[in-house]
Each structure stands twice: as C-alpha cells, then as structure tokens.
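Quick board copy: two proteins, each given as sequence then tokens.
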Amino acid sequence: MTLDDFKKNEEKILKFWGDSKIFEKSLAQRKGAKPFVFYEGPPTANGLPHIGHLLTRIFKDLYGRYKTMRGYYVLRRAGWDTHGLPVEIEVEKQLGLKTKKDIEEFGIARFNKKARESAQKYKAEWERMTERMGFWLDLDNPYITYRPEYIESVWAIIKKIWDKKLLYQGHKVVPFCTRCGTPLSSHEVAQGYEDITETAVIVKLKIKKPPKRGFFLSIQYPQLRRYFFSILSNQKRKFAFVSKKSVSEAERAWCPEFNEGRARPRVKGPAMRGGRAKPRL
C-alpha cells in the first residue's frame, strides 16, 4: 500500500465518521453512564498548530476512546485559550506598540477587542487539523476563556477551595517582565529566554564597631556605588556571620559556605546596632 493509498483510506474513514455521526452516536450510547470528564487543555489559536500539538492530541484522543470503551460517558469538549502574554504581544506587534503606556494611550478596551480577535486568528486551521487527525472532540460547543461564564466558573472553584481551607498564602520567586509589568509563566519565559551577562559589583564593607566583622553588598547598578552611605538592617531579621576563610571563598563563588555548613551562628539585626561600616571600594 502506497502513502497515497493510506491518505485516501484515511479520508474515506473520516468521511464515514462525519456522515454517519459516529462520534455523536458513541456519546449517545453512553448517556447516563458514569462520567469521565475531559476538557481539553486549550490551545491559543493566534498561532498555527505544529507537530508537538499533533503528538499530544494523539494521547488525549486515546484516553477518551479508551474510557468510552470501558463504559464511561466521555463528553470531550474543546476549548480556546484567549489569555496570556503571547496574545497581547502579537497584538502589540500588529499595532506597533512598545510599552504598557502605549497600550493605555491606544485604549485598553480597543486593545482587548484586538486581542480577542487575534486569539482566534487561526481557529479554522486548528479545527481542520483536529478533524484531519481523527481527534474526536466537540468543536461546536467549546469553552472560551474570555467568556464571563468561564471566568465566573474559575472563581467559583477557587471559592470552594477557600471554603475547604485548602488555600494558603505562600511566597514564591517568579520571573518578572519589567517591560510588561507582570510576572511570567515558565511557558512565557521559554518563548524568548536567553542568557545574558550583566555588570554587577560585590562590595566588601568593613565594620569599625564591633571589630573583625563586615558585610558583602551586591550592587546591581555599579554606577551608583559612590552614593551608598549606610546600610540599614531589618531589626527582625537574622544575619549569618561567616569566617574569614569562608568570606574569601565567597568572593570567588557566591557564598558557598552557606551550603557547606561553615556559617557562624545567626544574630538578629539589633545586635549590629551602632556598627559603622567603612566602604572598601
């Protein structure tokens, strides 16, 4: 069988599935059975699908078919992701906007309208790919993340989590985009991540009182080093003093003594009150 024969056979099967509404009949046969809920992790349709999307959708389709054969009612609902920086950045490029201020001057309502349009720019291509690969999915009734009913459903879920006391406040270091003025997800960082080298200065400050102690001060903007006149310590924080040997190593590799257990006992900020630092630049 040639590749062309495979192609024709696939198209013949797809036509039979479509004309006979096989997907819809498979759902009707399981109506009332134990549900297996599947909402597709929604793609953003402002970009064209690629081989990675094809591979992941094969597994998504596999689970839906398997659970159906096991007797479950599997309502497979499509979705479209219309939020996030990829959509906004694409619109910024189209409109020639460079900063958050440019967006505000253009008009947030007008910008949001453009973003909604861009978010589904290639919707037809995504649907064509979905149908061509035989991925059984309800494309006629998708959930769309900018619709009020979707947004309200997310808040309703968060409310239930809160009521069960499963929500807690924590602290996490996350990437931040200074241009966009927003934290970034790992996916957003991966789209344009690159390693760069920035100039920084680590200043060693000798304390006059108490003796034989000092500070390391990291300065992100070396040009400002001459304007540092004092160091303020948080009175509720604890500070670790390290040995002279450790300090010399820290100058070569950013304080490895903290990982190697050579840090001296910690003291609270008030213990350093009255100390005077003399810069050694």
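And the next:
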Amino acid sequence: MSLLNDIIELKDEEEFFDIIEDEIKTYEIQYNEFYKKLFLNNDLDKNECYMIFKSGSGGLEAMDFNNIILRMFLKYFEYNKYDIEIVNMQHAEQNLLREAVIHVKSKYAFGYLKKEAGVHRLTRVSPFGNGKLHTSFMEIQVLPIIEKPTFTIDKKDLRVDTYRGSGAGGQHRNKTDSAVRITHIPTNTVVCCESERSQIINRETAMKQLYSKLYILNEEKFKKENDNFKNDLESHWGNQIRSYLFNNNLVKDHMTNKEYDINTFLNGNIDEAIKSKIIL
C-alpha cells in the first residue's frame, strides 16, 4: 500500500511520474536477479567468456559472413554495455575475417552467450560470385574463462611461437614479435593472442584461452550427454543453430523456431533471440 499512499499524497504530475519511474527500475532489478537465479544457475554461468568467430566453408563469402556476424555482436555488446576486448583478429585477402577472438568481461557473459555457440548459415546472392544464390557458414565457439583451473598443463606439451601482430594497435606492436601462438601438442589445440604490445601479457592471455578450450574438451570427454556442454570446440558443420536468409529478409533460429527481420537483427538487436534460448 506504500506506493498507493505515495500517489494519493502527490501534489503534481511530475512527482507522480518520478515515483513510477523509480518503481519500474526497482522491479527491473528484481526481475533480472530472479532471471539469473532461475536460468543462469550453473557453476560457470557467472564467468566471463571468450567468443571465437571462425569462417567455415564458402571461401570469400564465408569470411565476409564472419565479418557480418562479428559486427552484429559488437553492436549488441555496445547496446548492452558489455565490457569487451579484442584478443585476436586474423584477416585474409580483401581484409575479410578468417577468425576473431573476443574476451567478454561482463559478469554472466558465459551464461547469456553459451547457446550462441554453433554453426550459423548464410544464404544470399554473393557479391563475390556470379549472381546466383550462395550458401556459406561460420562457427561461433563460446568458452568460459577459468580463473582457477583444477588441472595443470605440462609445459613439455606446449609449442610456443611468436610473430609480429597483423592487426591494428600501433606501429610498435607490428615491428616486434609480441604476438603469441601456443599449440597444445597432444590435442592439437591452438590459441593466439596479439592484443597487447607485451609478449608476456599476450602469452598469459593465450594460456587462459588454452585452459578454457581444454576444460571444454575434458568435459566433453566425460559428459557427452550433458546439455551444458554441447557448445564444444569441435561443433559439427551440421549443427546449425541459425540461418540468415537475405533473399527472404529474415533470420530463422533453429532452436526456438522464431523468425526475425534480418536488417534489425544484424544491427545488433538480438537480445530477445538470446534470452529465448536461455529458458529452453
């Protein structure tokens, strides 16, 4: 009754709307906390994560599609005020994107984004082709960041290579071998980092990626039937979670069977699509 009593005692309209606005904000906070407890209650859901964007089959078209999806998520992160860092970018010819690694630093990043992992399919008249419809693929991997790993990695199992960073970030970084590539030889798992000028920092970041990837691989080995770990490193190209149909001007989500306007979707308005999958 306190809200009703406050409204009755109001003397002007501005006061009324101020109280309503405050109440709405309070309910939004309470709803978000309830939502997290109800749907994001796995051990790793609170963690930050890495998102890896990889072009698949389709040549130049697939790498361009990879660029499109990365831009879509960058807009989504901006709208939702996510704290992110670009860890690694691998470009190919015509400045197309072969692979990108993004560190999403916000709390609950893994819980919100884990079901974005999988294969995304594009169908459109390719600007790189002969005017015919072309289908290409890209894959997203979502890896929880493990701050305190419960396992160790034998240094003898690692091959560490350094090279000059190829992306933006200043002349100094591109003139020194500050970028780091680490290969875990037993599993042939490769991670890279070239986001910093310091080789030491890049190596530390690369090792965090490696722990995340090996964690998922280990969990997949023993929990193949556990839905929490279906976003593994080696998701198959047949595991399509979403189709982007330019000729039909729509995006179709194969997990929820919902459809979205493609222009709105690619502009980063994907919050509803992400949350729809969380409650499944």
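Board note added afterward: Confidence is low (pLDDT under 50) at residues 168-173, 228-237.
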